[in-house]
């Protein structure tokens, strides 16, 4: 009888160890910030305003009291993209110029949208006085891969977007995503840059990779716990077999 009782106690213990071995992830690996703070902390990002670069798509609208003249400038641009057919867009070429009606080439590389608006207004003054120009970015995309809920390429309408908002577009990081090992792949100046960032560090907000650039790629690497679970498939299968065998033996002994 004592032998039966010992066997009966062994089974739930083995089952508990099996589940604990294969399914536990430490809570500290799932949080976004690795330490608490009581007071407000300000971290100034070096990238406060986005500047125009080659291959950007710009929405440019001319506003004037002369509707006929305004229509000439607004209707001569090309429409870009099925999802943004209401936006008139201009391509920035490899040298940083756009080709604007009547004016010709306008150099905008390195300008902010506000500075670009003022530059175009000044050039249009020779053709159309008392004008206002609106310049915005379009075709802003970021690609998110790895341990997120929904991998894919996402379009955003904001002039700039930080890495946390970008990950939210993909449904956030999955339970197996490593928040301390996120790779940002960025093409700039003819080079491809790979940079690891730690999402649990508040210092990220002060770095160059807090705000993303269009066409950045974010890759969320898996936690070691998930990698280990793949490597230990044989061990998990063995434990499951042993548990099943003990249950069968216990049932056989009980019947006798």
Description:
Helix content is 32%, strand content 26%. The protein folds into 3 domains: 2-25 and 228-255; 27-48 and 140-222, Outer membrane lipoprotein wza fold like, CATH 3.10.560.10; 57-138, wza like domain (wza like fold). Mean pLDDT is 76; it is low at 37-41 and 78-86. Helix 1 (2-23) packs antiparallel against helix 6. The chain has 6 helices and 11 strands. The chain is of the alpha+beta class and 256 residues long.
Pick out its properties.
6 helices, about 260 residues, about 25% strand, Outer membrane lipoprotein wza fold like, alpha+beta, wza like fold, elongated, five-stranded mixed β-sheet
Summarize the model shown.
With 256 residues, the chain is α+β, with helices and mostly antiparallel strands.
- The neighbouring-strand order within the major sheet is 8-7-11-9-10
By secondary-structure content and strand pairing, the structural class works out as alpha+beta
* Secondary structure: helix percent: 25-40%
According to CATH, the fold-level topology of the largest domain is Outer membrane lipoprotein wza fold like
Number of strands: 11
Multimeric organization: single chain
Sum up the overall morphology in one term.
Answer: elongated
Biggest beta-sheet profile: 5 strands, mixed
Rg for CA atoms: 29 Å
Order of helices and strands: HEHEEEEHEEEHEEEHH
